[in-house]
Every structure is written in C-alpha cells, then in structure tokens.
Amino acid sequence: MADYEKLEIAPPKTRDIMADKQDEPRPPARARRNGMRIAFRELRFWYMFLGLIMVLYQIANFVDRPLLFLFLREPDFKGQCAQPEPLFPGQNEELDRLVDIIEGDAFRNASVDRLSGAVQVKTESFDDLGEVGQDPRWEVFFNFHKYLEKTFPLIYERLLVEKINTHGLLYTWKGSDDSLKPTLLMAHQDTVPVPSETIGSWTHPPWSGAYDGKYVWGRGAADCKNSLIALLETLQLLLEANFQPKRTILLSFGFDEEVSGRRGAATLSAFIQDRYGKNGVAVIVDEGAGFEETWGTLFAKPGTAEKGYVDVKITVRMPGGHSSIPSDHTSIGVLSELIVKIESEQYPTRLVEENPYYSQLQCGAGYSESFPKKLKKLLADSAFAKSIMSPMCHNRSNNNNKPDRLALEAAKQGPAIKYLMQTSQAVDVISGGIKTNALPERATVTVNHRINIGETTKIVTDRLTSISDEIAKKYNLTLQAFDGSQEKANSIHLSSTVNRLEVAPITPADGSTNSPFTTLAGTVRAVYGKNVIVTPGIMTGNTDTRYYWDLTRHIFRFAPGYDADDEVGLGKIHTVDERVSVLNHIHTVRWFVTFVRNMDEARFDTDTVAGRGAGKCGSSRDRAECGA
Ligand SMILES: *[C@@H]1O[C@H](CO)[C@@H](O)[C@H](O)[C@H]1NC(C)=O
Ligand SMILES: *[C@@H]1O[C@H](CO)[C@@H](O)[C@H](O)[C@H]1NC(C)=O
Ligand SMILES: *[C@@H]1O[C@H](CO)[C@@H](O)[C@H](O)[C@H]1NC(C)=O
Ligand SMILES: [Zn+2]
Predict the structure, then answer these.
(1) 258 labelled binding-site residue
(2) φ, ψ for residue 344 (rounded to 5)?
C-alpha cells in the first residue's frame, strides 16, 4: 500500500503543479479532469485487487485451504520421494557368482535344511522368566548355539563369536579400514511360546520345521529364525567367496526380544557401545516391515520410526465393608466411571511431517496410478501451505487443535492405517473384588497405549491424571498420579509400567542424498527391480532396536525378503501355522549379500573415526581379540 501511493499518485501530481508555473501551456481543465479520473481509475483498480486478495485470504482461512493453489502446478511428489537408481556392487567375479549360487537348487535345498533345523530347536521365551543362570528355561539357548556352531563351521572358525550375558550372540568380521563405522545386522534367537492347547490346530507340528515344497513351517520360521539364518548364510557365503570387507560387519542376536529384550538386546547394545562408542555404527538393520502392494504399486517399507509405548495401571482404593450396608459407589463403580470417561474420547488423528506415513502418501501420490484423488488434493494443499507460510504457522506438528483433514481422510482406509497416525488406547486388563458379601477395597485396570509420532507418553499420563483428578474430587479420594508413591487408602493411584518408551528417533530417509537409506533403497531396487518404490515405513510394535538408539540414527526395521506368490506374507507371525516361503528366504539372503557389499563400498559423512570406537577393536594389538 505505502509503495503504491508513493509511486503512482504523489510524484506525477507534484510535477504537474510545478509545470503550471513554467512556461508550458496549461492543459485545458477538461483534460486535467480526465487525467485525474484515469489516475483515480487506476487507484480503484489497485484497491479492488487488494480487496480481492484480502477476501481470498479470508476465505482461505475460513475453509482452512489455500485457494491460491488452484492457480499453481501440482507439487513435485516424485521429488519428495526420490528413488535411488538400483545399486550394484563393483564387479568381482567370485562375489558376483554368489547370486547364481543363491538362486540355485543346491543352496535352496541346503537352506531349507538349515532353516528347518533352526525351527526344530525350541527357544521360547516367557513373560515370567527369571534371571539368566537361575531360571532353567533359558538353557534351551545352549542347544541353539550348538546348532549354529555345527551349521556354520566356517563362521565359527574365521570370525570372532562372543557371548554376551551368556546367551546373546555377537559376531564380528573385522574390516580392514578402521575409519569406517560397522554395518550392524540384527535378529533374535527367541520365539513366542506355543500355547499347548493350540498345538493340535497346527497343519504341521510347531517344532517340526516341515517343508512342503514351498514353505518351512513352525514357530519362529517367520519371526525371526528366517532372518537369523539368512544373516549367517550371508556371512558364510561371503567367506566362501573370499570377500574381504573394509567396513566391519557385526551380527547381534538377542534372546528375549519377545519379552522386552532387557537381558539380551540391552546388554548387547551396551557391549557394542562400549567398544565402538556412541554413534559408533554406520547402520542397523533389524527385523521389521517388508513389502506391500498398495494403490497398485509395490512398496518396500523399511521401518524408520517406531511408535512409543506406555501401559498405565490405575487403582481405585475405597473402604470395604459388608455388602448388606453398601456405599452408593464401590471402587469397582468408580473405576468403571473412570474407564467410561477414558473411552469417551480418543486421541486425535494427526499426521506430522516427520511421520513416515506422510512420506508414504507422497510416494503414493508420486508413483501410484490409483492413488486416491481426494488424498492427493489434501496432500497438495498441505505442501502448498507449507511453501507459502512461515514454518511456525504451517508446521503440521504445531497445529494441535485444528482437525487434521489430511490425516482424517487417510484414516478412512481403515484402523490399521489410522493407528499409524493416532495414539491408541486399549483397556486391556481389569480386576477387583473377591467376595459377593464384601465391598471391594481395591479395583485395578491397565490401559495400553502406543504413542503417535510427534507426541509423547506425557500427553497420555497428563490426560489420565486430569480425568482421574476429576473423579477423585467427585468421590473425595486422594489422587496419587505417577509419583512413585505407595497406594494409600481412599485414593486413585496411577503408575506406568517399566516398559514405558518414547517414540523412536526418526531415521533419515531422503533418497536423494548419500545416506544409508539410499544404499538400502538402491539395494532393494537392485534385487527386485525399478518397479519397487522404497518408502520409509512406521512400526506400531517395538523391536530390539529400542536399545540401540545411541549407536546410530540410521536404524531400519526391515524384512528384505519378498515372494510375489506368498499370499500369507507375515500374517501368521505369533499364531498357529507360522511359516515362511523359502523363496522369500532365498531373496532375503540375496538382499543381505548385496547390501553388505554395497555398504562396504559406500562412504558417508558420518564415517569419521569414532572416538572410543576405533578404541578397543581399532589398534593392531586388539585386532586378534576382535577377529581378523
Ligand atoms: C534338491 O532337492 C530336491 C528334492 O527335495 C531334489 O529333487 C533335487 O535333486 C535337489 N537338488 C540338488 C541340487 O541337490
Ligand atoms: C515443528 O514443530 C515441532 C515441535 O514444535 C519441531 O520439533 C519441528 O522441528 C518443527 N518442524 C519444522 C519443519 O519446523
Ligand atoms: C473427605 O475425606 C477426608 C479424609 O480423607 C475427610 O476428612 C473429609 O471429611 C471428607 N469430605 C467429605 C465431604 O466427605
Ligand atoms: Zn521378532
């Protein structure tokens, strides 16, 4: 506005008046009036233009939609989901021959035997296991170690194998260049138990390791003895082909992943960090998400994020007494009121930009023919709003109060998608009361939560505290919220269990930069072809990697095996008829062989010598100790 006045009106007028005083002929009054009218018309035009912009702006604000987007081109969704070219390792005849070996009959037959044998060694883990060395149920892992040693003699002969906390396994294949941070590959040795009453429902007995020409069946076949065996097969093949790594390769196998990993992964990661230092490894690949066909496109979805986790236990304590003279409300009634309140409202469906599902939508919009039009539009709006507004105004993470239209639309695809963008709450366990003629003195409920990306467990505990506070006031009870205190009489007591976990740090996953993600994605496209689109994925469950956050930002929860004809996928994990397609397994090995070679050739900015890292395994004195 200020600019306009200065330029368009003031100067000409002044000059006109000055001109009158010169000897130039004075223009006729009519012409002067005309000139003014023209000036006014121009002015009016600019005012109208300005008004129009303000109206548009108001409308845009009102409908929460940048209307100006209509005049602009669609955002570059493909660019937001850059796909690296297929990445093949440098030529090496002996190593290149591995692909044919892996795809051959002899390897397939031998691989079936190795996998089947691994399934036949029971390695169940139970929630109530005691400490290692005390509870005899841990001893099954000695059998498993024997089996591995017998099956992979070359590895045990040539590499360093260390046992951490008795049953944790750490394999080290020392690289020749100490300045390169190691590649760390993970799996777990334990499986969930098979409840004895379900054994009869299995098509093949759960520890048979039966092979029917396509699948190997049994507990652990898909979660995750398949990847554990595939990793050892990978190293064995590379050893046989005289591979000489520059970058150190580590395999780390925990033994209690299914019961929180406290004894296995936790002690392994501490050991590894002690040796290589904080941020001491280049990349971690652990079990996780695999491939999925959506919107007509095949996506590989390595998990780059994990939702957080918190179980909250709420206990209501109220006076007991005889049932014949009850109070109006017992602890069970009050707890019920609390539960109804908790369930009456759900956490918001919100998709922050850091959430890998946001990237998945961009990838879908960029590459999938049948990507839903409405989603694409909302996605474009979001991208546009971001491009014109200041980061503070349009930071999806900050728009806490407005409904997230993009997330709500995407959530229509079903609850499995919705809960990629929403903190879940599930009232799972309840108990209270012991006798029909006694008022219950105590009633307890446990509510399970998985925390949305961009949120924290504190949001959950704050909300439950505020709801409980209301009820506590109503019934004159003392509130003891997450303060670690002992339960008192006449109280509502809240606590979170030990497995509380924040949302995992997000793994960088920009396919247009030189990063471990790009190496991983390039390997996927080298093995499966360019029609596979690699997009960051999100895990709603937690893996052993929860203990490895300090070792690297570059953590991927990824099952790299894909078999187009395997209709089951990983659908049978943790239940009856768990099985794995052998073709899937073969592809897993092929992928890991390629990935390890690609990582060996890759160089990253983060590949500086780790301070302590070079430490224990760096010097020549320590070399023998760390495997050569
Ligand atoms: C692999 O096993 C099948 C039967 O399971 C057999 O027919 C075939 O000859 C074996 N191939 C090799 C190379 O051992
Ligand atoms: C958005 O806000 C969140 C929290 O307020 C912050 O962590 C994040 O870095 C912001 N993102 C951008 C792109 O500014
Ligand atoms: C609330 O409880 C306290 C003791 O816990 C008691 O002293 C007080 O009288 C109670 N108030 C009401 C209104 O019942
Ligand atoms: Zn698992």
Answers:
(1) yes
(2) -70, -15
